[in-house]
Structure to design on (660 residues):
C-alpha cells in the first residue's frame, strides 16, 4: 500500500532540512503532490501550508496534477539545438501532445550533449533521437 | 574458458543502446559481461571492450542486433573488424590526453573499491590523514587549483577561510558538492560521478579533514538519476570499507548524503543550492555572508564543484607542485573539456590549460558531425559567448578566454555548423533566463522576458519601417536591457545572459536582419 504523505514526512522529520526530500518521496510514491499532501507535510514539519506551497511551486519536477500514462521530455538546450532539437520538439508536440494520456515537456539538458538530440521517453533517456523513432515508440500508445 | 567483455553503464552509452548490447553479449555462451564507466569517447558508444592477451580491444558503435554476427566474425578473440579500434589503451584520442583527474575513468566497475585502491585510490586521503589541516590546505593552495564550477575561485583560499572560521570557534562545518551541472554542453560531473565516484568521495573527505567537517552533502540534479544511484552505492561501499564514517580509523568522522534537485537550473548557483539543500525555494542569497563563513544552516561550508573535489586526491597524492606544473598563466593543472553539440567526436578530453579552442574543436572534435563548416562555438554554457569560426585560436585558460570576450565556465564547448541562427540563439538565451530566473530581482525576471519580445520584434516584419528607424530603436532597447541586466542582477544568471546575446549581435548581425525561422 502507498504510504501517506504524513507517514513519509514523519519518516524524515528528524533529518536536517527534510522538506524537499519528503516531497521527492511523495512524488516517488504517488507521482504527484496533492493539496492534501501539502497540508499533511506542513502539519508534520510544523510549517505553514503557504511555506510548503512556496517550495512545491518553485520546482518544476514537483507536479501538482496526476501524471499522464506517458511522458516525453525533449531537451531544448543549446547543444541539442545544434543537432535539430527545436524541430524535433515542435514535431513531438504537434504529433503527441494532443493525444489522450500523453504529455510532452521541454527540459534543459540531460547531460547527453555529445549524443543529442536527447529525449526521455517514460523515464528512459535516448540519444541521437529522430522524430521517426520517437513516433515508432509512441505508436503503441494510441488510445 | 570465459571471455570478459566490458560494456559501459554510463547514461550516455545507455542512451544509445549499451544495455541492449550488454544483454545481447550476456546471452552468448562463454561471455562474462562487466559494466565499466565510459572512457569519455562518447561518439564511439556503445564502445565494447574485449579482454585479450594484447589488452582490451575496442569495438565502437556496436548495436545489439549485430552482436551474433560480430561474435561469429571473431569479436571475442579480438579480431580486426570494421568497427574495431584496436587496443583501447593505445588509442591516440586517449594517449594524447593528460588524464590526471580521469586517470581511472572507464577502467573498472565504478563501485569496485578494490580496483580503485589498486589504481592509486585513497593515497591522497591517507596522506591528508597524517597532515595537519593547515598543511592540507597549503597543499591545495600550492596546486593553484581553481574552482571548476565556473567562477574559478582559488580552492585552497576558500578552504582556508572555512578552516579559520572553524578554528575561530565555529562548532561545525559542512562540505557541499555541487553536482547540479545545468549548463548545456557539460557532462563531466555526471561522467565522473557515474564512472569513478570514489574519486569524488575521496576529494570531499580530504576537504572534510582539512576544515574539520563531519557531514557532507552532494547536491545532484534530478536529470541525473544514474549518478544519484551510483553515488549512493559508492557511499555505502566506502562506509563498509572504512573510508567514510570513521575515516581510516582515525577517529575523525565524515558522512556523505546525496540530495536530489527538482528541476531548477538556478540551484547550481551556490547560495541557491544551499537554500535547496536546506529544503527551501532555491532563491539566491545576497553575498556577503559568503558560504565559507555562513553556508549550510549558518555554518562555515566548503562549496565546490565535482571536478574541483575530484582534482584533490591527485594533488594530495602527488603533491600540489606537480599539479601546478601543468597548465599556463594563472590556470594551473588540467581541465576536463567537454565536446558537445554538432561535433564529429564528442566526448570528454582532459588536457592542461592552454590548448586552443580550435585544437579542441578541429583536432579533438574532428569538426562538425554534419560535415558542414563550423559557424559558431559556444563555450562556457548558456551564459557564455558565441564565438565565430575565425575566433577560435584563443588559448583555453580563464584569463585568455575572458579577454577574448568568452568564458571558460565549466569547460563545455558546443559546436554549431552553418545552420546556426544567431538571432534564434540570442532569443533562446533570453527565454532560458526568463524560464529559469529565481525571480528575486527585476532586471533578470522582467528584463529577460522583455528581451525575448524585443528580439521577436527585431526579427519580425514590423521592424523594417520605411526608414529603418524601428530597427534602430529596437537595437537600442535591446542594448539597454542588456545593460540593465548586467548591472542590476544579483547573480550571474541575469548578469551574464547578455553575454551570448551581445556576442550574437556583434559577430552575426546579419542574422537579425530578418526572421530565418
Ligand atoms: C546561474 C548559475 C549557475 C551555476 N551552476 C553551477 C553548477 O551547475 N555547478 C557548479 O559547480 N557551479 C555552478 N555555478 C557556480 C557556483 O555558484 C559556485 O561558484 C561553485 O559551485 C563553487 O565551486 P567551485 O569553486 O569548485 O567552482 C553556477 C553559478 C551561477 C551563477
Ligand atoms: S539574477 Fe535572476 S536568478 Fe539571479 S538572483 Fe536575480 S532573479 Fe534570481
Ligand atoms: S543539451 Fe541536450 S542533453 Fe545537454
Amino acid at each position: 500500500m502507498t504510504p501517506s504523505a504524513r507517514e513519509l514526512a514523519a519518516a524524515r522529520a528528524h533529518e536536517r532540512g527534510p522538506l524537499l526530500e519528503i516531497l521527492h518521496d511523495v512524488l516517488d510514491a504517488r507521482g504527484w503532490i496533492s493539496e492534501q499532501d501539502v497540508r499533511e507535510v506542513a502539519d508534520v514539519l510544523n510549517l505553514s501550508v503557504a511555506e510548503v506551497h512556496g517550495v512545491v511551486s518553485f520546482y518544476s519536477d514537483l507536479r501538482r496534477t496526476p501524471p499522464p500514462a506517458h511522458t516525453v521530455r525533449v531537451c531544448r538546450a543549446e547543444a541539442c539545438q545544434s543537432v535539430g532539437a527545436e524541430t524535433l520538439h515542435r514535431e513531438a508536440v504537434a504529433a503527441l501532445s494532443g493525444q489522450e494520456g500523453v504529455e510532452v515537456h521541454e527540459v534543459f539538458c540531460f547531460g547527453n550533449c555529445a549524443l543529442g538530440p536527447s529525449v526521455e521517453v517514460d523515464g528512459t533517456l535516448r540519444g541521437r533521437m529522430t522524430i521517426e523513432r520517437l513516433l515508432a515508440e509512441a505508436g503503441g500508445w494510441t488510445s | 574458458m570465459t571471455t570478459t567483455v566490458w560494456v559501459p553503464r554510463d547514461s550516455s552509452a545507455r542512451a544509445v543502446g549499451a544495455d541492449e548490447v550488454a544483454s545481447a553479449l550476456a546471452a552468448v555462451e562463454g561471455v562474462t559481461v562487466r559494466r565499466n564507466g565510459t572512457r569519455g569517447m562518447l561518439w564511439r558508444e556503445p564502445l565494447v571492450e574485449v579482454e585479450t592477451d594484447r589488452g582490451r580491444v575496442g569495438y565502437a558503435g556496436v548495436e545489439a542486433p549485430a552482436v551474433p554476427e560480430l561474435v561469429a566474425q571473431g569479436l571475442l578473440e579480438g579480431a580486426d573488424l570494421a568497427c574495431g579500434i584496436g587496443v583501447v589503451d593505445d588509442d591516440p584520442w586517449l594517449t594524447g590526453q593528460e588524464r590526471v583527474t580521469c586517470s581511472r575513468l572507464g577502467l573498472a566497475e565504478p563501485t569496485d573499491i578494490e580496483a580503485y585502491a589498486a589504481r592509486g585510490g585513497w593515497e591522497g586521503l591517507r596522506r591528508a590523514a597524517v597532515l595537519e589541516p593547515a598543511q592540507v590546505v597549503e597543499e591545495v593552495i600550492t596546486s593553484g587549483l581553481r574552482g571548476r564550477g565556473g567562477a574559478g575561485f582559488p580552492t585552497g583560499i576558500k578552504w582556508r577561510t572555512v578552516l579559520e572560521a572553524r578554528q575561530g570557534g565555529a562548532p561545525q562545518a559542512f562540505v557541499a558538492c555541487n553536482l547540479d551541472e545545468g549548463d548545456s554542453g557539460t557532462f563531466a560531473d555526471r561522467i565522473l560521478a557515474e564512472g569513478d565516484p570514489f574519486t569524488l568521495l575521496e576529494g570531499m573527505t580530504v576537504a572534510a579533514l582539512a576544515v574539520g567537517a563531519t557531514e557532507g552533502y552532494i547536491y545532484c540534479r534530478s536529470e541525473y538519476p544514474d549518478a544519484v544511484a551510483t553515488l549512493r552505492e559508492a557511499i555505502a561501499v566506502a562506509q563498509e570499507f572504512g573510508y567514510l564514517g570513521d575515516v581510516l580509523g582515525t577517529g575523525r568522522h565524515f558522512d556523505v548524503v546525496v540530495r536530489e534537485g527538482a528541476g531548477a537550473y538556478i540551484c547550481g548557483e551556490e547560495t541557491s543550492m544551499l537554500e535547496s539543500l536546506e529544503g527551501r525555494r532555491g532563491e539566491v542569497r545576497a553575498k556577503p555572508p559568503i558560504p565559507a563563513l555562513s553556508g549550510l544552516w549558518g555554518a562555515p561550508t566548503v562549496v565546490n564543484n565535482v571536478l574541483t573535489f575530484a582534482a584533490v586526491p591527485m594533488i594530495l597524492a602527488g603533491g600540489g607542485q606537480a599539479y601546478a606544473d601543468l597548465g599556463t598563466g594563472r590556470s594551473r593543472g588540467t581541465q576536463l573539456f567537454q565536446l558537445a553539440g554538432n561535433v564529429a567526436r564528442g566526448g570528454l578530453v582532459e588536457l592542461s590549460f592552454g590548448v586552443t579552442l580550435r585544437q579542441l574543436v578541429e583536432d579533438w572534435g574532428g569538426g562538425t558531425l554534419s560535415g558542414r563548416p563550423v559557424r559558431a562555438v559556444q563555450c562556457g554554457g548558456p551564459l557564455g559567448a558565441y564565438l565565430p569560426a575565425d575566433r577560435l585560436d584563443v588559448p583555453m585558460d580563464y584569463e585568455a578566454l575572458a579577454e577574448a570576450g568568452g568564458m571558460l565556465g565549466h569547460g563545455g564547448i558546443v559546436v554549431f555548423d552553418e545552420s546556426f541562427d544567431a538571432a534564434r540563439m540570442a532569443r533562446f538565451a533570453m527565454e532560458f533566463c526568463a524560464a529559469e530566473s529565481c525571480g528575486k530581482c527585476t532586471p533578470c525576471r522582467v528584463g529577460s522576458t522583455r528581451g525575448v519580445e524585443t528580439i521577436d520584434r527585431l526579427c519580425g516584419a514590423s521592424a523594417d519601417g520605411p526608414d529603418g528607424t524601428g530597427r534602430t530603436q529596437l537595437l537600442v532597447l535591446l542594448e539597454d536591457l542588456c545593460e540593465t541586466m548586467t548591472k542590476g542582477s544579483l547573480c550571474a544568471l541575469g548578469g551574464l545572459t547578455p553575454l551570448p546575446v551581445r556576442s550574437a549581435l556583434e559577430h552575426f548581425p546579419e542574422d537579425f536582419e530578418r526572421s530565418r525561422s
Q: What stands out?
A: Residues B 147-151, 153, 178, 180-182, 266, 268-270, 303-305, 308, 491-493 surround flavin mononucleotide (ligand 1) (CB under 6 Å). Chain A touches chain B at residues 16-21, 23-24, 54-55, 58-62, 77-83, 86, 107-116, 118, 125-128 (CB under 8 Å).
